[in-house]
């Protein structure tokens, strides 16, 4: 399996990841080429078995970027079926009581008039159809596993992973070596905590001048509910119970179409109690009357989880480097004040496409640092939007939900996000974990199998599959850390923060060991983010592996 | 020798399907669809025969929706030469598929038809047998080994309790089982090339076949939920009590 055996292909632009950012960039590139009458070859590689298979989001869509890309999206049949009709914000005091926030107290950014409740997976499936019609080559089932560099250190493209490699690293009968994709410019749109993006951050010191990134873990379920309880367009957001002890986060429940609702919980990954299990917090949350009133009598049909990058403006890295750009959540363009990242990710893709196409049209042969992208970014509404929300997350982290919420109300509603202060929050999430012995244990109620469930039956609904005979894609940099460091200090928190039950501590005669059930992995990246020793490295498994989310 | 391979677009084997709320059918909205795994094995076997110089051309056929073009492109990326889609939006039934394939065999003058032993959505396992009967050709079903030489096909069949080896005179119909081969991954260049290979649409009317269903789907229900395996008791006395009262076996 020497790397010299790999074949290569040439494209003008290679995009890593068929999410909203990558597909928007692909469409925009082709639209410009078509308008200019220029030949352009654009290729998108996607690790999921199909476009949309690994996409998971709330999701409420603000159409601003989509309007720019396809003003006629409605005629083109974009899956935006449910306009938001009503916003409710709830503060849960305890497992029974909730306070509904009056409308005037809600930060402006959390108003959703004019937005749509969508499945981001389905939007991406639709975007992929538009892209293919424009001539983009989309390759689902091919994971970008490696960044390729030119001799001058600029990014030359990517290599897809080898297929048909056994657990022991040896090629098996169906072995197919990866392919090198050489290109003038590579757009990295892997989503939050992309593994190639992580390498680029380090290699080009992209986050040198940024605050450290902060993350949340979003867990989401899709439910069929009784038609009498369904009110399409109703949007519920809330916070409070069951999160406590300084753990912040928020839940959502959206009434979509087809008598379905999506319910989810985002737990900020800066939590400090290692006994916390985001999965179990979400399961017990569903028993609160505020949610249960809709879910009771219904049936859960899908489950999934994904980390989100919520550091916002202050954590934005440099997004340019020789030969490539970071876009979307790979850079961290999500607007946490709106809890929305789709329109911002799409816009970053559009800006990248403009910068790249302009360079290519002027005869750029590739490999340069496209500073024009940074300029376009700074001149865009995206910059303006992220800048005005820059204090939202840090305020919650610093002052807690109540005072932070009050600050956000004043900042967003009275000053439009223009208060001349910059709150900063520079402790990385993984460094926040306190010793297990110093933290209260959390006893979670047993799932009842009606509203709440265990991890395995949940993972079952994510249609997750990885070819069994392949090397483990969750690598421990030091295999001794879990048992010698994480277990005594933090009671190995991976057992609890992983929403898919990948990590298990097994008692054997020879002692305890960490078992990694990599085939369950939902590709949420939480372990890569939250491991207190930063000892877990998520790399791409064989292409096509992972969840197969429908309608998520 | 020209080989005709039937491929069906089915819901991906990793996806857990569920029944629509009204019980009318299985809900396939936005689910990942894929080439029927047994058909993929048939494509692989046919392509290997072509690579070995035994077959002259491999033609893949699907009867299904427009989206079945993706399924055919996948077969083309594996090495089939060209594809034919017979558009049909409804649920295709084995007899209708067999009649369509029969018409295509005549049109293409194929000497060997290869199919998966069954589709993983309806699990019918009928099309190959029906087609052989309609054509009055010999059939080798459940093939786990295959040799073609001197106008003969030698098929090792997986049967209850063992293996059976039969020889068929060409032309013939072969349906394949899981162990015949492990299909290849399609490479990026072959996927790109496949987009340029010919994909022809032929309507059922042109073939003189009626695809309208002869079966009516009355209802779809999910399998009953399995009850938990057992109850954990604290003491032997409790066990005896439960055996007496609840299980009523003592």
From TrEMBL, chain B:
<dbReference type="Pfam" id="PF01012">
    <property type="entry name" value="ETF"/>
</dbReference>
<dbReference type="InterPro" id="IPR014730">
    <property type="entry name" value="ETF_a/b_N"/>
</dbReference>
<dbReference type="InterPro" id="IPR014729">
    <property type="entry name" value="Rossmann-like_a/b/a_fold"/>
</dbReference>
<comment type="similarity">
    <text>Belongs to the ETF beta-subunit/FixA family.</text>
</comment>
<comment type="function">
    <text>The electron transfer flavoprotein serves as a specific electron acceptor for other dehydrogenases. It transfers the electrons to the main respiratory chain via ETF-ubiquinone oxidoreductase (ETF dehydrogenase).</text>
</comment>
<dbReference type="GO" id="GO:0009055">
    <property type="term" value="F:electron transfer activity"/>
</dbReference>
<keyword id="KW-0813">Transport</keyword>
<dbReference type="InterPro" id="IPR012255">
    <property type="entry name" value="ETF_b"/>
</dbReference>
<protein>
    <recommendedName>
        <fullName>Electron transfer flavoprotein subunit beta</fullName>
    </recommendedName>
</protein>
<dbReference type="GO" id="GO:0046395">
    <property type="term" value="P:carboxylic acid catabolic process"/>
</dbReference>
<feature type="domain" description="Electron transfer flavoprotein alpha/beta-subunit N-terminal">
    <location>
        <begin position="23"/>
        <end position="211"/>
    </location>
</feature>
<dbReference type="InterPro" id="IPR033948">
    <property type="entry name" value="ETF_beta_N"/>
</dbReference>
<comment type="subunit">
    <text>Heterodimer of an alpha and a beta subunit.</text>
</comment>
<keyword id="KW-0249">Electron transport</keyword>
<dbReference type="InterPro" id="IPR000049">
    <property type="entry name" value="ET-Flavoprotein_bsu_CS"/>
</dbReference>
